[in-house]
Amino acid sequence: MAKKHIVYLLFAFITIFASKNPQISGFFIQPCIGYGVADYQDNFKTQQFYNDWVKSMSDIGANMLFYQWVSHYEANQEWFSNVYGGAASADFCFYYPNLIKIDNISVNSWMPAIKAWTLEDVSPIQRVLDAGEKNNVKIWLGLYLNEDGTGQTFNWWEAVNNNDINSKDSAIFRYHVRRSVDLVKDLALQFGNHSAFGGFYYSVEIANLGFENRENWDILAWLLDSVATEVHNLSNKQLAISPFFNTTLTPAKEYGEMWDYVLSKSSIDIIMLQDGVGVKPQILTETVDLVSPYFEAVKKACDKNGKSFWANSELFTNYSGDDENPEFSSSNIDKILLQMNTEAEFADTFVCFSYLSLDPFSVTTPFNEYPLFTRKKLYNDYKTYYDSIKNENNSQTISTIKSPKSNLLDEVRISVSGLNIAIPKMQKPMSYCLVSPNGKVVLSGTVKDACVIKVPVSYGIYIFMLGFENQTSAKQKIFLQKDISSTIYYKLHN
Question: Which terminus of the chain, N or C, has less C-beta within 10 A?
């Protein structure tokens, strides 16, 4: 192929790749005393503190905040019960709850302590909703999670640590459904009319462990539908959940089949798939992509069943690379943009875990995680990126209005299998170009007749571009992986 064709294709690749401009639409926060909740020091004591905190999210484009749970089981809080009363081990809430006792588990509220610390009788839920209203950020209220390490109650993780569901696991599932439904009723009554109330978040997390066996899929469908149905009956809100996957367990195809079945039998509204790159950074690098097949599989299941599919790109990283002995810290902008650009092939809404990784506002954080200077650096780096794409998108909008609509000239379908790329017969010669993630041209040429291109590279992620001379080139990301086949469609325009 002539050199000018390679330059032309690379220019098109850069233009199209940059035009995706994925950005973060929202953040998770895990509330605890001192983060998202007032404490005995100066953290989150005033409405102004909440306003400024939520504004720091809005300043980088966020319009959603997911408050991961409003109730979380806490054990042995004698320091609290000795002073403020109530059970020391209970489902503790970040507001004044009107909840029933279930299976001998009491309900308690942090509010007596918060009232003593702040000298005001206003709950963290009310504070964060009011801050959301002021900053045009919708607040999604998470429901309930039990992570009791004492082994005495209904620890969610114990129920899903393997695929054998026994009677104790079933009791844990039932408890989380009952408590979550109880919370939906209470929250809808107390806060349902607040203008900043965005929706509900189901705090339990689903992976390809716990429900991997097909005989367990109906249990998972019931677990999701039981709460989603009550959300729809009691409010005009949606219910979201954020599952994850382990690439060493169920293959992506089977994981997608599970979600296809479960979504067909449940009325949950939004799936926000965690990419897992924070815990296991090795599953997505410049040359390895084990993430996209799972995103593609779950995206297809959502599309088929009329559900919204969003991405949850993790904003922390594990510097040890070992999930048994992790060393967590704030990630860096290059890694996060790699995640988002990869996942933007499947999702256009990103709600990321968690704001703690780049929070420039809170001086102290739970357990002193993530030093302030690392959080500020990531925040400033992302803000630089956000400001640049905001300006670029504004420029593109102006130019789009002035430009005539392009006409579709052709559609080309190629097949990828292992290290072979099959191209059909063309009406006229077409240029092709295979580019590695670092921008190096690996292979290029011109084809007209049907052929199979054998790729002289190792398995990994590449960009494959096609184009006729004087036509806009199309680029698609392809995955050269052993024993995996896929079909890719190209639409070529003037």
Answer: C
